[in-house]
Amino acid sequence: MRQIDHFMPTASPAATRKHQVWNPSTGEVQAEVALGDRALLDQAVANAMAVQPEWAATNPQKRARVMFKFKELVEANMQSLAELLSSEHGKTVPDAAGDVQRGLEVIEYACGIPQVLKGEYTPGAGPGIDVYSLRQPLGIGAGITPFNFPAMIPMWMFGMAIAAGNAFILKPSERDPSVPVRLAELFVEAGAPEGLLQVVHGDKEMVDAIIEHPSIPAISFVGSSDIAHYIYHRGAEFAKRVQAFGGAKNHGVVMPDADLDQVVNDLAGAAFGSAGERCMALPVVVPVGEDTAERLKEKLIPAIHGLRIGVSSDPDAHYGPVVTPEHKARIEQWVTTAEEEGAELVIDGRGFTLQGHEKGFFVGPTLIDHVTPDMESYKEEIFGPVLQMVRAKDFEEALRLPSEHQYGNGVALFTRNGHAAREFMNRVNVGMVGINVPIPVPVAYHSFGGWKRSGFGDIDQYGTEGLAFWTKRKKVTQRWPDGGADGSDAFVIPTMG
Question: Catalytic residue positions?
Answer without folding.
Answer: 279
